[in-house]
Design brief:
This protein is α+β, with helices and mostly antiparallel strands. 34% of the residues lie in helices and 13% in strands. The protein has a five-stranded antiparallel sheet with strand order 3-4-5-6-11. The protein has a four-stranded antiparallel sheet with strand order 7-8-9-10, with no helix packed on it. The protein has a two-stranded antiparallel ribbon with strand order 1-2. The longest helix has 31 residues.
């Protein structure tokens, strides 16, 4: 309560008594019938056992250090659990039931690491740092040079009283705990997804693999494909029942069109075709949408997602839209049975550009 907060109906002698006591003063103005709003002041400071017994202070210091060491061990256990437990392992935890061993162990160890840092900081503040209460009168928002000097002096005094410089064991173990905890976040970055390695550079297509019609699931023959038609194909041996069908077809899906050889402008495209039958990746090179809109008069295909347009008569180059490069072409031929087959894999990664593209 400041002097501005004194009700106007108080007698002047009561206001004088309030000013004499002062906010935060250790002087106690006892409540009386004439002065029911007297400032009681702060209670008398009582020293803790750590303030008067250095052995007790040392015990508290070791306790704080123990908390910080336990935090470090919990962080190490977090990293170990991340490496040891597989993602699909389940364990029974009473009374929760069956839970993921990885998630439960990561939550338990990371929670322990953070808890012990907090417990150590709280125990340090309650037993070793100064607990003398200091009260200041209200002051203007803009600090005067004297106040700034006082704040700096108080800060230095607080740093000295905290024992931060003298309690090296506490300080060093705290630094160790704070330095190890961020490693938990670094390790979690590994769980953003599997590393691509070279999986994005290759597909199931290989020399000799037949082109299978995705609708009839039968091998494609040249006579099955007429000029102006669009057919979708997948590699021989891949079925929709395979557990990795979606991830494989996302790279290996083909669109087959037949163009009159005289209309093919790109020399390599003509060499890699068979009697005007060309095979291009169905996956758009912008964000990976499947391409399915074909205009037979212009030989253009359109991606329905962002309208990237490719000219299949000119190496599937981009003629409109945000796609960054042409659709990869698959070199094809005819085997002894008269079926269309691949003569190798794509010569470049299919789909959107990625940083390993090289």
């Amino acid at each position: 309560m400041s002097s501005q907060d004194i009700p106007e109906n108080l007698p002047s002698e009561q206001a004088a008594a309030h000013d004499a006591a002062g906010h935060g003063s250790t002087a106690v103005a006892h409540r009386t019938d004439d002065n029911p709003f007297a400032d009681p002041g702060l209670p008398e400071h009582k020293p803790r056992i750590q303030d008067i017994d250095e052995r007790a202070a040392k015990r508290s210091e070791r306790t704080v250090a123990l908390f910080f060491v336990l935090s470090m061990l919990a962080t190490v256990a977090f990293i170990a659990c991340f490496v040891i437990f597989p993602v699909d392992k389940l364990v029974y935890i009473w009374p929760i039931g069956r839970v993921s061993a990885l998630n439960f162990s990561l939550g338990l160890t990371l929670g322990a690491a953070l808890f012990f840092i907090g417990a150590g900081a709280v125990h340090w503040a309650r037993t070793l740092m100064s607990d003398v209460e200091v009260a200041d009168e209200r002051h203007p928002i803009e600090a005067s040079p004297e106040v700034k000097a006082k704040v700096m002096a108080d800060w230095k005094a607080g740093a000295e009283e905290s024992g931060f410089g003298r309690r090296k064991l506490v300080r060093n173990t705290m630094f160790g705990a704070l330095a190890l905890v961020p490693l938990s976040g670094v390790v979690l970055l590994r769980d953003l997804g599997p590393l691509p390695e070279k999986k994005l550079r290759s597909t199931l297509w290989a020399k000799g693999k037949q082109l299978i019609n995705m609708n009839t699931h039968q091998p494609l023959r040249p006579e099955d494909i007429t000029v102006g038609s669009l057919v979708f194909a997948m590699p021989e041996g891949l079925t929709e029942e395979d557990h990795n069908f979606q991830s494989q077809i996302a790279k290996a899906a083909l669109m087959i069109v037949r163009i009159r050889p005289d209309d093919i402008k790109d020399k390599r495209e003509l060499e890699w075709s068979h009697e005007g039958i060309v095979a291009f990746s169905k996956i758009c090179t912008h964000v990976g949408c499947p391409i399915s809109l074909y205009e037979q008069q212009t030989h253009h295909v359109l991606c329905p997602c962002h309208q990237s347009t490719f000219d299949l008569s000119d190496g599937a180059r981009v003629i409109f839209g945000p796609a960054g490069h042409a659709l990869p072409q698959l070199r094809i031929g005819v085997n002894a049975e008269g079926n269309l087959h691949a003569l190798g894999d794509f010569d470049e990664p299919v789909g959107p550009s990625f940083w390993e593209r090289g």
